[in-house]
Prior knowledge:
Layout (H helix, E strand, L loop, with lengths): L8 H8 L3 H6 L14 H10 L4 H17 L1 H4 L7 H9 E6 L7 E7 L9 H19 L5 E6 L13 H14 L4 E7 L5 H8 L5 H4 L2 E3 L7 H6 L17 H14 L1 H11 L10 H7 L4
Parallel strand pairs: 2-3, 3-4, 4-5
Antiparallel strand pairs: 1-2
Helix pairs in contact: 1-3, 4-8, 6-7
Amino acid sequence: MEHDLGFDLTEALEREGLSREDLKALRHPPIEGVPATITDKQLACFLDACDKNIDETRKVLRIYYEARKNGPELFNNRDPHSPAIQQCLQNQDYFPLPTTPSGYSVVFHRLKNSRSSNYHFDEAIKTYFMTIDSCLYNQGPRPGIIFLFDMKNVGLMHLTRINISSVRKFFHYLQDGLPAKLKAIHVMNVVSFFDKILYIIKPFIHAEILNMLYLHTSNENMESFYEEWIPKSGLPSDLGGDLKSIDELHQDHLKEFEKQRPYFLAEERQRNPDANIIEESTDRMMKSLSID
């Protein structure tokens, strides 16, 4: 099944202490709005995110599919070949990082340049959600996930690009429907006007998520961050780490997006079996992507 995830299910179940019997229990009775074709790998991510609580898992599954149905601007037309997503991939950096010593997944994002005219908010969120899905595709259920943002190229004019309706949907999905346990949101190179950003997003954030928000200035001593959250061995060289540069890691992930293209198209068909999903040609993709 092309809409299935790519990780090893047996290894993930053993690592996270998940039960195949619990996976079966999630299927009966059927959950309204959840595709009958949902796979055990997909279910395993939700079960782990909900600490193996069947009732809570069923609730989150409903929210997940409702959020995707009610937010087509963020969850539909997710072909990596599409011009809109290509525009995001050319102007912003997205990629998962290696899992931390604690087993957490890490998803990184930053703007590649400071031109606000290149920033299209809804498409940027869509591509970010795809990056989270790409991380889950390969890494599967984990003890938690960390979001790592770099604000180096963010300016005040970017605030004019924000869509409040999409901000609401963004946080609803992350807080109530994400098939992963959010452990922390780290913001690097935090800008002086972050209070203005917080003013915009605070009405949509639960108190527990605010408590997971960590802000880091450009001149901050990061030793405690390396020790407690992400070691240098798991960070890009631009952030003081031992990995490749942000640009190189992004280019590597473009290749991963290309490999996962059948999954993204099939996952959307799984949710929207009657939708007319237009697939961009590979030739068009290769002309617009810079893949080494």
